[in-house]
Design brief:
Length: 323
Amino acid sequence: SDPARAAASQRAKLLQAAAAFAEPLCVVIDAIGEAGESALSSWWPLLQEAPTNKCLFVMFAAKGTPVAQGALVVDVDPFTPDEIGELLQAAQGQPESTLANEIANASGGNAAVACVLVRRRLAGDEATLTSTSTHDVFRQDLATLPPAALHAVLACWWSLPIDPESGTAAGVDCDVAGAVVRGWLRADGRGGIEPPSGAQRECLWGIQTTGADLLAQLAVSSLPTDDPRRAEALRICGQTQAAFLVLLDAARNCWARTEYAQAERWWAMAEAQSGSSRFPMKDAAQRAQALALLGQYPRAEAWLSAQGQPASAAEQVLMAETL
């Protein structure tokens, strides 16, 4: 089947379902950074055709102003010390103005970073931040999770069943409650639990962990062969070549759906796993085209230059078309 047509069909079905709701409906697209902006560009034509007599909100996260004409831009201001103080009061029942000011200064008002610091300080962790980047802070916080809580996060991310009586998955202890308290798991609204945000799931890639081999082995055998999460399980199992191929397939599928930012994410991860493996020339050319379409011309040029000379006449033609 055509991946691009299948993705468009899924989006159209969601809009049709939304039209049947009697009450206003809000749909949040859980994609971050360039992936969020790419999702908006693929959704926008369909949204303009949505019924005008229904109240439907579709929300995307974007770093800059969306290019879609007519989209409502909502700027999210940084947390103030007073708002952080409200978080602390809700959590511990009493105001902490001094601590609120410290967290506001340390986080720069970044809501995600502030929430991590609030949880840490309430747990008695006085560790200071070496960065206020959301990704860096989440990675630091993930590294401080107790092993059983981290295993619970991985098991839920890989959709592995956790025995409620023994608290184990594949014989590995999983502290779901501990992961929830630390903000790394939440109810998903479908009777399950999951990492709360795309930014947190992003941090699970390339994680350095011990004792998760059995979980990874179960994930390799139970996840669909085309599921990108399987690549991380393969990496933990030491099967880097297999992980490389899974990521290439994920990038190809995104390319076919014109999701260029997400495709580049998978290509970048495949490059990190490639070792001595060489990108097939078609994949290399498509990655260069995607980078150019994303406006990253210097990176596209550098990527093509790094591929060396085409090995065959067919590859020479393909690279010439790309250039």
